[in-house]
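Quick log. Single chain, no ligands specified.
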Amino acid sequence: MAQVQQAATPVLLTSSGAVSLCVGSMIGFYVNSTTGGTIVVRDGGSSGTALSGTITPAVGWHTFPATFTSSSGAYATLANTISVTFFFSANS
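-> predicted structure:
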């Protein structure tokens, strides 16, 4: 039986910013540290469609399988103090 392993490019953010600038998929994110930090994931840049409500994550791994269809890619709005690494794969 073959094993399937997911892989993606890590993108570290400590403030709001682009996770990717192209169409693709995210498998999840790892919160490195936080003090009441929040995340909103968007498809299509900073003013794109919200794919999540406001997430107030704990430190650790969070599965977040999402497909981004906008050519503007994925964007994360971060608030308060948070360091988070997103794992994103561009579609070819």
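Strands lie at 9-13, 17-20, 24-43, 49-50, 60-68, 74-90.
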